[in-house]
Design brief:
- 2 copies of one chain form a homodimer.
- Chain A is an alpha/beta fold.
- In chain A, strands 20-19-18-13-12-11-22-21 form an 8-stranded parallel β-sheet. In chain A, strands 2, 4, 5, 8, 9 and 10 form a 6-stranded mixed β-sheet that branches.
- Chain A contains 16 helices and 22 strands.
- Chain A is elongated, with a radius of gyration of 31 Å.
- At the A-B interface, strand 1, strand 3, helix 1, helix 2 and helix 10 of A face strand 1, strand 3, helix 1, helix 2 and helix 10 of B.
Chain lengths: 547, 547
């Protein structure tokens, strides 16, 4: 072996090793999540050689830059350490760990053992005086002064050794010296991990879903936003603070579905709000039957007066009548014969809907337009978005889009409606969705609930995924509710409200509506395809129990 | 929001996300370990949006460079994937994962569902023909030819749709098309993880520890290497393949310990082999009473003739008589009065030993000299090193040193004698030690054994740490052996030999030697401080049972 191959490190590496820093999601690729005021706890393994003791800090700062704030770790034993912090401003942060040999405390611990062994400590006291003097040189007034007094005392051979040792071991002095360590050879964790601080609503809230068109008194026509606002006092009284509206856009007429999902609509059938777009506009228009965009703005303001945030459903798909179909045919998938492919999932066909083609060469204009949809509604006072089927669009698209929106509005909130496999739901949560629908509706036995909520509340999942425990949706009326009657509704509402900080109901739940299309989880006479007028104070309702 | 803030990615990101790649030790900072021929299994979570299927490969290559070898992952369900590989050459490797949408298989799966739903598939068959043609363009002869035949058939409208679908779904064709995917938009895992392939001996072996000076017939003098070689047939017959020798260097006379660790040695007491160094030399010399370096070389060769590798004990500490004490006083820690500090751990003192000062400013010359010690013995045919107390030296030093040695000799093997806290033992294993002493001697009840071996055999620990299950050492004679008699020795040997692939005994174990210094785990009349002559065929021995 020639000496040239014996390459030494450029400088002596730190004697301290930091690892197992937690939370750390996928090697720091994705952020841990907290909300304003929520405790952020970081643990790490910190080891060094020999008998010396280590000290360590958690370092935190805004991602955009600025000074690091530092919090000391406490030793938990077994080389495990823990630090806790709290952030008060929403946004993106970075955190990392720094650790070093605590020279003074190591010396003091050794000194104590020598005293217990009745050894001569003259040499050690001289050494200690030097440590304290060095700490003094790193300190400012008045601590420097106090440390110099201690150093002089330790070196004063006219004072009995045991009295000097007693000063050296005084916990107040040990703590003081620890404030001014030599961090020149500190170990720095080799990455700055991301942390997202969201607004409180990302973690805690109660959601109410309703079709505004059903909030009137005439089942033969759509109610307006002005009429729907009449429900706000009732919703506020039940304690809800988010009001989620299915798509409020114009609805296509081509291949429109009729009542109960009939293949052909009868005259006057309003169609599904998820068949988005018509001659009146697409994802940035409101259905004329609901009113104007000004009416929408007014509705959002009215809701706010009741302490309620309006959440919109963003469903990226188009009816054949959507303006984009003509303006941007390149955003859709075409068959070899040139026709556009409607949505299919054999044996099911959704002829009233064209999916967007994210594999298009024109992905840049498509992504930009879709971002524009969110920006439009942000400009109209909406900060909460329930995203329809995000798992059927590319995950990197969502990461980019949510990043763009949150850079503008850190308190924006995205709920993923992804009823799919666990790792795909988790991926969406990692890359930016604040909340996720869950399997809760299908977890009804005790064993199912224990198993599922153990998964949701155990790290690492609990570090990045927050479940929104909807008890029902327009698509999911579980058999438990179909057959269980009023007690079942009370049980499920109680579980949802207590198993997590965020839950929701789809309107009608409070009336214990439980009639299905037989053999399915669909509602009979589903509001998805017709206007449904109800007596919101019908006997047997559980409004008082919910609120 | 201005358009300048809507920055799009430079290119459309892959739709596939790869995460949870395992093994991955500390974000890839440390290597996973395998031995030649041992199965290397990698798992990953691979998710994508929508209904498309993914395909993925594990990629492996030598760290120095070269072509990637690829092994396909198999789907385990729930978005989990697994691939297996085996390496046949010791050394350092890198591995990573690449995944992409399997367009043909996704199309074929969709086609099958359409066929089952009795739908017209004319358009789909045209699409499929295009996929197959594209695959043909990526293939070479003869596969390209076979794919073109399939493409032509799929496009041939004179053939009934179902017959064409049947060809398209033929598993052989599906597999053939999968061999030539479009990987232009594949996802690549963002790091190349390290893997170390060690020689088989790093995982599998049986160790025998003996003091060569005790292998003669006269307790009043040291035996020589030539005499000690007389034990080799016996050791080989017991089935051992590593013969580990405590330090073979000159022993200091200053503050030499006497028999049974007496503070003062009597005339003729040989001293502890761990008090290394005298006027005759230090860590690169052999004790004159054992012979010359040529005798040592001869001994190593003789052992090899019996299929036995000699392992040396490397203990980085010096007797006050070691040449380095005079030649390199800067490598030792001095008291304020200028004297060198001997080893202390209050209330214990080790006056016959000076520790090396790794905090010295002269760390570069110290590290280089210590590396030279290993190089010296490597040049004398020793590839296996049992390192004394590595946890009292800086961890980065070992990472550097082992890296240097293994770059020269990949089959070198390092056993860490670190009886310390779990995370420190694990850190040493991560940064390069091939094997570790363990807590096995102190795990005697069933519950203790189950708990401890669950820890050792569970990932991630099992990915980087290999325990060498010594049943005793010159420092550890467990109470179980002190009081249990011959049955206890048989029980412990059986457990050690069956609970893991590597175990070891310190000589005398086969004679069921169990006399302690009362109240301690030290041997009475310990061989550490005196020559001990035994009858290796004494009645009651368990040599036949061990072999």
């Amino acid at each position: 072996m020639t000496s040239s191959t014996r390459r030494l490190p450029d400088q002596r590496p730190s004697r301290v090793i930091i690892d197992a820093v937690f939370p750390e999601i996928d090697d720091g690729r994705f952020p841990a999540k907290r909300t304003v005021g929520e405790r952020f706890e970081v643990t790490a393994h910190i080891v060094s050689d020999g008998h010396d003791l280590v000290d360590a800090v958690l370092r935190l700062r805004p991602e955009a830059g600025g000074d690091w704030a530092e919090v000391h770790f406490e030793a938990l034993g077994n080389d495990e350490y823990r630090a806790r912090a709290t952030a008060r401003t929403p946004g993106r942060y970075r955190y990392t760990v720094e650790a070093w040999i605590d020279a003074y405390r190591s010396w003091a611990t050794d000194l104590e053992r020598r005293v217990m062994a009745n050894w001569d400590i003259a040499s050690e006291l001289r050494e200690g005086a030097r440590f304290v003097e060095e700490a003094a040189n790193r300190a400012g007034w008045p601590d420097a002064e106090r440390l110099r007094v201690l150093a002089a005392r330790l070196a004063d051979e006219s004072i009995p050794q045991l009295e000097r040792a007693s000063s050296a071991l005084d916990p107040e002095y040990v703590a003081l010296a620890a404030l001014y360590p030599d961090r020149g050879n500190a170990a720095r964790y080799d990455r700055e991990l991301p942390l997202v601080i969201d607004s409180e609503r990302a973690r805690y809230g109660t959601w109410y879903e309703m079709f505004p068109r059903s909030q009137g008194t005439d089942p033969n026509r759509s109610a307006t936003f002005r009429e729907a606002a009449g429900r706000l006092p009732d919703i506020a009284a039940m304690g809800f603070d988010v009001l989620y509206l299915p798509p409020v856009h114009p609805i296509g007429t081509t291949k429109r579905k009729g009542r109960n999902n009939a293949l052909e609509a009868a005259p006057g059938d309003p169609g599904s709000p998820w068949a988005i777009g018509g001659p009146e506009g697409g994802h940035t228009a409101v259905h004329p039957d609901l009113g104007t965009i000004e009416d929408f703005d007014w509705f959002v303001g009215e809701a706010r007066n009741f302490g309620i945030d309006v959440a919109l459903d963003i469903a990226f798909q188009c009816s054949p009548d959507h303006p984009w179909v003509h303006e941007h045919p390149e955003w859709f998938r075409h068959r070899p014969d040139g026709s556009i492919k409607y949505a299919e999932n054999p044996p099911k066909r959704y002829e009233d809907v064209y999916p967007l083609d994210f594999d298009t060469e024109a992905w840049e204009s498509l992504w930009t337009a879709l971002l524009g949809v969110f920006e439009f509604w942000l400009d109209h006072g909406v900060k909460i978005f329930r995203v329809d089927n995000p798992h059927t669009k590319p995950f990197p698209f969502w990461e980019w889009l949510i990043g763009q929106i949150k850079a503008r509005e850190p308190s924006a909130l995205f709920l993923a409606e992804a009823f799919t496999r666990p790792k795909r739901m988790q991926a969406l949560a990692k890359l930016g969705f604040d909340q996720s629908y869950s399997y809760f509706t299908w977890r009804n036995s005790k064993a199912e609930i224990v198993e599922y909520f153990t998964e949701l509340t155990t790290p690492p999942v609990s570090e990045f995924m927050r479940a929104n425990l909807f008890v029902n949706t327009p698509d999911i009326l579980h058999e438990y509710l179909q057959v269980g009657g009023r007690p079942a509704f009370l049980v499920r509402a109680t579980l949802a409200a207590t198993l997590g900080p965020t839950y929701g109901i789809y309107s009608g739940f409070e009336l214990c509506e439980g009639d299905p299309v037989p053999g399915t989880e669909e509602y009979a006479d589903s509001e998805k395809y017709q206007v449904k007028v109800r007596d919101w104070d019908a006997p047997g309702n559980i409004k008082a129990e919910i609120s």
